[in-house]
Amino acid sequence: GGAGKTTNAVMIGYVLSTLGIKTLVVDMDPQSNATKSLMLTRSANNEGAVPAINKTLMAGIEQASFVDLPVEIIPNLSLIPSFIDFEDFPKYIYQNITDEYKQDFLVKGLLDEIKSDYDIIIIDVPPMSKEVTKNAIIASDYVLISLQTQERSLTGAESYVKELISLMKKYDLNLDLLGILQVLHKNNGKVDQYIMDKAIESFDGDNIFNTVVPQMERLKRFDVNGITNKDLHDKK
């Protein structure tokens, strides 16, 4: 947790939508931080807008359809919202699906039914949930790893890559690692530079983006007020 996965998922989705790319963000984290952020964004960009979540991700799992789940946030950006009930996802698949292949490919099958409606689908995953992570990986064509410059985040990224390789071999997945995006824990920190150097050793420099995401108060404000392009930074 705290590696910037949700912030990156939400911000990338927002920016893509402003470029005219029809984007869907799927919140697969029961903490539902992406849902909260994007619903705030919906309100911030639509004066008088009221909450419009009729069904969440877990409801879509149970009804075996995601067709009526997406909520429009702004033009070209939609959300499949999550809620705390998604914590029951592992229990649901073990109680209702006996075949391991069908357990692992459940979300992929449901997303395949709606993927033609979007140019890109971004899946936000929780810090720890083997069942959710497997479903998200299998449903994806590309993987972006968010790495905060802390030792435990680096260890977690190394474990994640091992799981990624294992799933690719097991199911012969056609999956590409886009790269590793570093998120600074502290701007210009010595520990941050040390972790960045270790990451280059572990993952090969070619797999790490040159772009580094700094700590920014502005991004923290987006979690409180929603994302807008109305401040001075965007008008320069």
From TrEMBL:
Spell out the Gene3D superfamilies in the cross-references: P-loop containing nucleotide triphosphate hydrolases
Which CDD domains does its entry note?
ParAB_family
Q: Name one Pfam family in it.
A: AAA_31
InterPro entries given in the database record: AAA_dom, DNA_Partitioning_ATPase, P-loop_NTPase
Q: Where is the AAA domain?
A: 1-174
- Which portions of this protein are annotated as coiled-coil regions? none
Superkingdom as given in the UniProt entry? Bacteria
Put simply, this protein is called Replication-associated protein
Q: Which PANTHER family match?
A: P-LOOP CONTAINING NUCLEOSIDE TRIPHOSPHATE HYDROLASE, PLASMID PARTITION PROTEIN A
